[in-house]
Amino acid sequence: MDEVIACDRLKRTYPGTSATVVAVNDVSLGVHAGEMLAIVGPSGAGKTTLLGLLGGVGETEKDQIFVGGRNLLRLSAAERLALRRRFIGFVFQSAGLVPLLNARENVALALELSGTRFQDAQESAHKALEQVGLGDRAEHRPHELSGGEQQRVALARAMVKSPLVLLADEPTGQLDSDTGLAMFTLLREMAASGTAVIMATHDDALVEGADRVLGLADGRIRADQQD
């Protein structure tokens, strides 16, 4: 299997009050199509920053990031945005849904931003909601949905694009155990369909179910936690 996303010697620093903070430091990794990778480590280890960089969000000091064979850092801002909208899905601890849009419209928006016709986007969005068990909640706005349902809408929004890569930051962090298990099952199904799934997580169940685990500490990959 070819790596669908890879980075080489990724580094990201921030100015601190007394010294420069190194959030990601010399990180190299690659993830194959259909692989589920869990990134673990304490709060402040750099997990969220790393996911953002892999998704083309934020600037780096040294590095290469390849998605589908294209180096994100050699693309213009507009080209990078277009690639991110088409090939990368995001699921975060907070669902991040648009409050004024219903579930179907929130999911369809991911396609419409990439140029899909309105009607086609709406139909695909409804199918994606059915996949996550929310076909009967398509007309509900976020405030009418439970936290777990909102997270499933967010996953449907990522799934509907059939992305090459899914980046998930603590996707079960605010969910009860049953809903978290359902979320893991859906992520596993995405990997089975060929999407490379990269998760930052503290959830033992997600870690145990991943194909590979990388430990991160002080912005660096911990070799002793690699599987």
Structure commentary:
- Helix 3 packs across helix 4 (118-131) and helix 5 (147-159) runs parallel beside helix 6 (177-192).
- The protein has 227 residues and is of the alpha/beta class.
- The chain has helices spanning 47-54, 77-87, 103-112, 118-131, 147-159, 177-192, 204-209, and strands at 3-15, 20-32, 36-40, 62-67, 70-71, 88-92, 165-169, 196-200, 212-217, 220-222.
- The two termini are 18 Å apart.
- The relative contact order is 0.20.
- The protein has one domain: P-loop containing nucleotide triphosphate hydrolases (Rossmann fold), CATH 3.40.50.300.
Question: Could you provide a short overview of the structure?
Answer:
With 227 residues, the chain is α/β, with parallel strands linked by helices.
List keywords for this structure.
Rossmann fold; 28% strand; 10 strands
Task: Indicate the topology.
Layout: E1 3-15, E2 20-32, E3 36-40, H1 47-54, E4 62-67, E5 70-71, H2 77-87, E6 88-92, H3 103-112, H4 118-131, H5 147-159, E7 165-169, H6 177-192, E8 196-200, H7 204-209, E9 212-217, E10 220-222
Parallel strand pairs: 3-8, 3-9, 6-7, 7-8
Antiparallel strand pairs: 1-2, 1-4, 4-5, 9-10
Helix pairs in contact: 3-4, 3-5, 4-5, 5-6
The largest pleated sheet is described as:
6 strands, mixed
Rg estimate, integer Å: 17 Å
CATH architecture: 3-Layer(aba) Sandwich
H/E topology pattern: EEEHEEHEHHHEHEHEE
N-to-C terminal Cα separation, in Å?
A: 18 Å
Record field, number of beta strands: 10
Largest beta sheet: strand ordering: 6-7-8-3-9-10
Beta content comes to 25-35%
Q: Give the oligomeric state.
A: single chain
Question: Average pLDDT value?
Answer: 90
Uncertain residue segments = none
CATH topology: Rossmann fold
Number of helices, counting only DSSP H or I runs of 4 residues or more: 7
By CATH, the superfamily comes out as P-loop containing nucleotide triphosphate hydrolases
- The helical percent reads 25-40%
How many structural domains does the protein architecture include?
1
Shape call:
globular
CATH structural class: Alpha Beta
